[in-house]
Design brief:
The protein is α/β, with parallel strands linked by helices and 162 residues long. Helix content is 57%, strand content 9%. It is globular, with a radius of gyration of 15 Å.
């Protein structure tokens, strides 16, 4: 499995210092246009952390942009559609932090995962201590992430069992 990260997942992971965990879970890629979106004053180290983590940057093509533009509708941006299209063509799994992209992935038959899955995998693979992953679950709601309460509770129970 190759993971293809969208902007929102990377922003969320930057808040908790977790960018480097992705390539330890599975090979991970990011489109160059997504990397450009990550360049923002609110998280000045994000782009550097993505590059240093070993996440591969994929150059986008006009064909990919055309495909994405033709499929775009609703609340999914062109860049998110480019992510979806690249994943669909190459059989990758999208790491999506926003519902509209996850819904489109589902409609298009593209595998996707989210923040909870990253926490579960980091725990399962013993990449971080449960205490650190519990911090992630505490930080995300404070930075505007709306995460389902039942999912948060399930993860807290999983991490607390240790």
């Amino acid at each position: 499995m190759i993971l293809l990260a969208d902007t929102s997942i990377l922003i969320d992971l930057e808040y908790v210092g977790g960018i480097a965990i992705l390539p330890r879970i599975a090979p991970c890629e990011i489109l160059d246009v997504v990397l450009d979106e990550c360049e923002h004053a609110s998280q000045p180290g994000l782009v550097q952390n993505i590059i240093q983590s070993g996440i591969a940057v994929v150059e986008t093509t006009r064909d990919l942009a055309s495909m994405a533009t033709g499929m775009r509708r609703g609340g999914v941006s062109t860049i998110d559609m480019m992510t979806l299209c690249h994943a669909k063509v190459n059989g990758h799994t999208v790491l999506a932090g926003d519902r509209p992209l996850r819904e489109r992935c589902s409609e298009e038959g593209v595998a996707f995962r989210g923040s909870f899955w990253i926490v579960e995998e980091a725990h399962r693979l013993q990449l971080l201590e449960s205490k650190e992953l519990m911090k992630w679950l505490s930080v995300w709601p404070t930075v505007g992430r709306r995460l389902p309460a039942e999912g948060l509770e399930r993860l807290r129970r999983l991490l607390f069992e240790e």
